[in-house]
Amino acid sequence: xxxxxxxxxxLVSAAGLAALLGFGVAGLPAxxxxxxxxxxxxxxxxxxxxxxxxVVAAVVFDYRGFDTLGEELMLFAxxxxxxxxxxxxxxxxxxxxxxxxxxxxVRAAGLAAVPVVILLGLFVVAFGYLTxxxxxxxxxxxxLGLLLVYLAAEHRAYRRLTPTQVVDVFEGGGAAAFVALAxxxxxxxxxxxxxxxxxxxxxxxxxxxxxxxxNWATAIEVTAAFVLLFxxxxxxxMVERRPG
Amino acid sequence: MIPLxxxxxxxxxxxxxxxxxxxxxxRQALLNSFYGLQLVVLFLVFQAPDVALAALAVGGGxxxxxxxxxxxxxxxxxxxxx
Lengths: 244, 82
Description:
heterodimer; A: mainly alpha; about 0% strand; B: mainly alpha
């Protein structure tokens, strides 16, 4: 197609698209307009029903905990599939590659930040159901803190710190703990994933019944999943850089 | 909508456009991580701190790393071929 025929064709379709978009935007509800009853109802009942100050966490780990179970297993399956495709017996080859950071200031500042970032991640997990945060967010931060070891030092140090066999156990264990907590309620004669622990004092770390346990199970699974994912990707890069 | 929210939306729009228009892959990957951070600001000014935290960890950290690692592998492979 020549540029001459292309331009009119583009202009006509762009005008059509612009008209459609304008029509759609003009028909949007007003900003902040909300008609769904559930959000408003939950805002009113969560504190009394679950003693959880972060409504989002109560929704994620309790009211809609079933959705989180699905997401949890989705992440597990995605990382397991990545490992299945990328994990070969090439660990030894990758370990021959030396990629140490040469700059001392970068090394020192980066490694000093590792415990700080990990602590921040643990904080985001631990208080996830009291203030904004939670197992997913905090778990990702912890994994990124561990990854700083690679960024500030070297690939081999990251792998030594996160041995695959150990991380595998945590990844499977976290997902299994989530499922076990959901099934555990059934054994007690309750509904699947029903909150079965004492609700505790509002604002305390022990509040929310089984929400803290589901939160930590998620954190363990997410941390391990991301650590494994980073490890597999880094190994792919290192194998390409191997000497010879 | 308050001006801060309008500014955040405009920034996200500009950021998304910049990612699409970038031709160099490395530049695009870096712009994409900046775009992830702009989304964090957007979620924060729209009072969704939980979502902002998730976007910060995934869009600003984990996703760019996976993309950069892929680019590094492709580059290293190209260099080996030469």
